[in-house]
Each structure stands twice: as C-alpha cells, then as structure tokens.
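G., before I forget:
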Amino acid sequence: MGIDFCPCMMHETLQTTRCSRSLVPCRLPLSKARLVAMVVNNASSSGSKILIRDVPGKGKGIITRQYFSKGDIVLAERPLFTQSITRSNATVLAALALCTPYEQESFYRLHNCHGSRYPAELGIFETNVLPCGSNDTHGHIAQQGGIFLFAARFNSSCVPNVNNRWDPDRGQVVFRALRDISPGEELSIGYGKLLATRDERREELKRKFNFKCRCEACALEGQALAFSDERRQVLHELYSAHMQEAAGDDPMQGIGEAMFALKCLREEQLPVYESSFYFSGFHFCAAVSDLSSAAVWAKYAQEASRVAFGIQAAVRWSQLVADPSNYSEAGTLSRMTLAAPDSPLWKDLGF
Ligand SMILES: C[S@@+](CC[C@H](N)C(=O)[O-])C[C@H]1O[C@@H](n2cnc3c(N)ncnc32)[C@H](O)[C@@H]1O
C-alpha cells in the first residue's frame, strides 16, 4: 500500500519532522522504500497517486497507480531552488545553504550522471534540472532552471507520455498526460531533441546525461527503425521551416506539409508538436480567407494545446476559433479554398 506524499509537494517521502513548506507535520521515516505523490488532476486535488520505484535499467522512475486521460495534470511541483544559466558550483552551494537539512539530504540523494566531470552539487543540479521558462524554436532558452525533488525522478523517453511546462503564475512546473495512461505505466518526459534520428538522440543523451536510452523508440531495429528515423528527420525539417515562418507562401504546399507532418507525428506518437502544425494549417487557411476550414484547424490546435500545455494555452485560441478573421495574417494571400482537418483529403492521408 502506498503512503501519502508530503503535502508541500517538495519531498519524495514523508518526514519525521515538520516540513518547512507544509502546514501539517510529515509522519513517516525518510527510508520508506515506496514513494507516493499526491497529485492534482483536472477533477480534484486528492485521491490521485503516482509513486517513485526502481525501473529495470533506468534507476528510479515514476509509475502511476491511477488512470490519466490525455491532458490531465499528473503532477505540479514547486522548485526547491532555481539557478540562472550562468550557475556554478558556488551558486548551487549558496542556494543549498538556504534549504532545510531534510531538503539538503533529499538533494544529495538525487542521481548524479556526471561523475567527476563537475563538483558534486553542480553535477546533481545539471543531472536533474528542469527549465523554469520556455525553450522555443526561435532560439530562446529558459534563463532559469530548477530542482524538483519529486519530478527529478522522471526518466526520459523518445515517445514521452508526459509533457512538462513551467507555469509562471503557479510558480510550478506542471506535468500533463500527452495520451491516456493506465495504472502501472511509467511516466516519462523527453530530455532531448525528439525530432532526430536514433543515432542523433543517442549522441545528445550520452553527452548531456551519460546514458543509453532504453525507451521503445530507441529499441526499434531494421525497417521499423529506418521508417522512424526517416519520419523524425522529415518532421525536423518541416518543424524548423514552419516554426520559423519559412513555410513559404504556397498555401497548397503549406497545408499539405502540415497534414503530412501530423500524420508522421501520429505514427511516431509525438502529440506534443501537434498544436504547432495545426497552427500552420490554420495560418494558411486564414491567409487565403478559407475561414470555415481555418476555424476547424483552430479548434484542433486549441485541443492539442490544451492537452500539452493546459487550459490557459487553449483559451488563447478561443477568439480565432470563433472568428478566424481576427488573425493578423487573415486575407494576406490570394483567395482559395483549402482543406480542413476532417476533409476527404485528410482521410486520403489515413486520418
Ligand atoms: C534525472 S535522472 C532520472 C531519475 C533517475 N533514474 C534516478 O534514479 O534518480 C536521469 C538519469 O536517469 C537515467 N535514465 C533516464 N531515462 C533513461 C532511459 N530512457 N534509459 C536509461 N536510463 C535512463 C539515466 O541514468 C539518467 O542519467
């Protein structure tokens, strides 16, 4: 049977002494082997459980004991402390000095994949840091990273079933289910670039985190691997082009590429990029004044944003769903009729 996670959401197990962040004292000893988190989902903030357990070949990992629907919040956690991208061992040590003894002990129990490459504190920080800000395709890199004592146990997958997103209003990283997840499944996030071949992904994960990924995408062999590599390469090219507004001004080609990318994303089980390509479809339809198709693309983009990034991201789409002519680039290309995601053309592509 599981135990309750410390209500402060900071600790991977309950404590014998009062935690500085929770209003109620923690009750259980530090050495408790099975670790459980109270988690927040869309419906309620109680009764949901995820736990930290040994996962063969990966050290510890996070397993769910409950069912999550796609878009559900599986965990929301505040950082123990944050650091800027110009951090050093001295700045990590200074932040640690402000933590309680229990928090310090929890920090030192986290994995360190860097061995002697860095001093211990910096090594632990770099192994477990998560962005507290957004990294985007325009080269912006989160200026702050944080340590999350529970979430540090998320392992990596190149087909992640959870997406992490910093929420500045909550001051928390929020983790959302990217697909329906059943009890007993491991929850995983993507540590590195997903739109890359297996060799490229392996190289990045080895360089940054010193491990060979044991996810199902990296276990593919033969033709299945060749197809996966090809799809991810194509997706990388399309994603770079469309997100840098270099998709061109040929709306037929642009919409075809968006549809093809969405088909590849589905085959690779990478829903986290869907909203970007639904946006692309919306962009072209609105630009050629095919407003009814644009509204459908906007609706799909809204739902994909809700799943990966939450309700606030979805709300931003409401105006464009209601009236695509509100889009700043609506009507900027010659009029024509394109295709909505539920059109026959879409079905020809196997959707
Ligand atoms: C941030 S820690 C994640 C939690 C860690 N497993 C633990 O025991 O605390 C990152 C380390 O977990 C392991 N890891 C994460 N994802 C993995 C994967 N897909 N395959 C193998 N090892 C993985 C690697 O050792 C990596 O350096």
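The chain has a mean pLDDT of 86. The chain has two domains: 35-209, 222-348.

More on Monday.
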